[in-house]
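ok here's the first one, seq then struct tokens
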Amino acid sequence: MVPYRSVAPEGPWAPVRSAWHESGRVVVYGAADAWASTGPEGLPAADLARHAALHTPAARRTHLASRLLARRTLGVLLGVPWREVRITRTSLGAPVLPDLPGIRIGISHTRQLVTVGVSRCGPLGVDAERACRAVRPELAGRICTPAELAAVAALEEHERSENLLRLWTLKEAYVKALGTGLRVPVRGFGFAGFDGPHPDGPGGWSFTTRAVRIGPDRAPYLVSAAAAVSAGAP
């Protein structure tokens, strides 16, 4: 199981370090406004260029917040100045640490939530969505296996949207961990009991999904993580 820890720019970092040392993996999340409020000072030129190229204040805010959360988290866990952390992307767009190939990372953001997963035990992917996000009925046909379609159809109507979102975040987390993104058809693999905290998915992987609340209004979000377990424990 991948541990989850909430953190603001001022901390607390001790629970994050403890989770990392105990399990070799951790998912860290926080409020985008809080992280963006620290400003872009110290970010590398590539991040600043990407930030400047985004067209809306909301996009610039979440981009800035996610980069600061990722770099600060990596600095704390690896014991290096966060401004010296170098993050690049593969040809398929997955974030990597070129100087530390044994460390795997995943980054996700949505509205007011930013999250980063870090692992020294093999691939790790994360994805997040607002729990109250409206879901179109056709989403089920786009992402579900036949067994998942049957499971969704058996739910009460008020449960379907949140559980479809949960399933979507699980599948996104998995393909992000693979490094392929949605180039892998998500209807080609399925989950059993995806409405629980530890759903069963593709073999050799551990999946965790949690509802978290952030910000002054305690808005609910779903955060899912996919971690390869065949690489072994730390």
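and now the second one, same deal
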Amino acid sequence: MAATSVTVEIAASPEEVWQLMGGFDSLPDWLPFVPRSSLSEGGRVRTLHTADDVLIVERLEAFDNRARRYSYSFIQQPFPVADYLATLQVREGNDPHTSIVEWAGIFTPTGVSEEEAVDLFHSIYAEGLAALKANFRG
């Protein structure tokens, strides 16, 4: 099993950051490469359409509003991995007006090396968190 994680510090309170990104259907609000999302199965499954019209279907595995964290797995996806589980979490930074956001995932590479799979998700997480941070500049 392989793993990677990316963290970013954002100059906004954890509550403000979670308000933007904490909903399971909120990716289009902050992630430019996912312009469309819809929920099904009582909000437990999200269907994502990427900017280049790739379909990704994910299942909400755990949600903790108080801890500002949720985890999800893949139902349908184009990536060379199996047994994928990722978690997005917002924590308080060094002071109450900053946040630390972490996006972490574990997975089993299929048909590619562990290094290739880790590099792929590390770049997805890094680009995604950079886009999230851009919402709080200025």
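notes on #2: The radius of gyration is 15 Å. The chain has three helices and seven strands.
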